[in-house]
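Each field is set out underneath.
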Amino acid sequence: MTHTDTIFCSDATPTIMGVFDLGIAPALLFYSYIPIILIGIVLSFFILIKSDFSETSKALLLIIVSFSLFLINEIILWIALPVGIVAFSWTLALLLRLCILLSVLYFTYLFVKKNDVPFFYKVLSFLLSLPILLLLPTSLNITGFDPNWCGGINGPLWSYLYGLEVFSIVILLFWFILKIKEYFVSRDARLLSYIYIICSSALFLIVFVSSQIFGEYFGLYEINLLGPVGMLIFMIALTFTIVKYHAFNIKLAAPISLVFAMWMLVFSLLFVHDINHVTVIVGMTLILLTLVGFALIESVRNDIRSREQIEKLVNDLAKANTRLKELDKQKSEFVSIASHQLRSSLTAISGYASLLQEGSYGKLPAKAIEPIERIYTSARAMTQLVEEYLNVSRIESGNMKYNLTDFNLHTEVEHVCDDLRPIALKKGLLLFFRTDLTSRSTVNADKGKIVQAVHNLINNAIKYTEKGTITVLLHDDVNRKKIFVEVIDSGIGMSDETLSIIFNKFKRAENAHRVNIQGTGLGLYMALKIVEAMGGTISAHSEGEGKGSKFVIELPLIG
């Protein structure tokens, strides 16, 4: 069809590309529509990227795209003159409104529920949308077209869509009331973000739908220019939830969003093409800028107050930390003094008990032999416990002394196994010592303390293994210059939670008390600190409770 064959609307003359006439558009058309499109696109893509392309952000983008296409279609309806283009845009408007409705409901559900829409609701939405999809190009959508005023006559499908929109608004308002009641019961601040989004979605649809219905009923289609106000409310509420409640897990500073709002208000003045309306528009923009400015000032004040509070808390925390260090030092000194005094007394008790057992003070009566043995055993156990507390105090105060020498780790570990094997056999356990060495197993460390750490691990394995075997494996990695002592048992095992805390002070496995009630939770802590002081480390491994454990000492190898 040639240009001369094209039928044009009779209420204007094409001035742009032979198709459009900007002069017939309402004065506020571009001022109302284009800034909303730009703000929506910028905001939605910002959220999409910052939220790592979450499903909720994709649903938000769907709303903005649908609404932007609808506004562009509306602009075409106002400024296009070829009847064919206007008629097609009028037909397309129904489909775009349906897309807006579905995307708003979809986004709101995802935001609140944090889960995808159930399949039943998807099927129901499809079935309710099916009449519009099937009958869109029929006269049930647009019953006629009047080229004199260049507009279509809406058919029954529009009434059907209005019904769906009103029903959706009722559902959102009902959901809004339920969330309000839930909030007053639980006082959960998280519900407030849901309430804001549900309310803003409902307000958006109310403004959007009512402006269309009233405009059609009264024949005043300029009322449609109020439709974007609903989207503006929606985006303000969305930005507020991001700033206030970190929706989408985004931390957006309030001043940034307010400055952007001020920029958009000024930028939107570029789209006022009727000089007669400039005074009104500038006045409205000035009022909005004033409100945004006050909000910006208040936001900055809040930031300053928050920063001052944080600085005060930091200072208070520093003072408290200094005081805690002083108290910790005093505690360590007290433990050290008390431990020395206790150890002296316990050493005397165990010494005299040993002399009594040996007959240094004469032969003991038969009935006194067992009590003296208990005294000696208890005194030795208490001496060992006091020594543990004393070592912890030394470690924490930095007063632990280490005598580093070169020695053969193989020999020392084997001696420890030989010393503890009778104790294992007494419990019915087998204690094996295995080696896989390619070096002389020489290390530079404090021999006594390394022996103590190895002794602690093997002794623990005996304590917490009720039946089965304990294997001590000594192996090396010459390339990495490392040597390893592995203590593997078939004992009570450990959960993942226990593995994460097992080397902390006074921490034991949850099931340890069932097997050994006398543990202090200090042995592994001390062993780790001692080995770390030698440039090594200790790690714990277990497949779970009841599945045994493995502790690995790793030390630097020198030859």
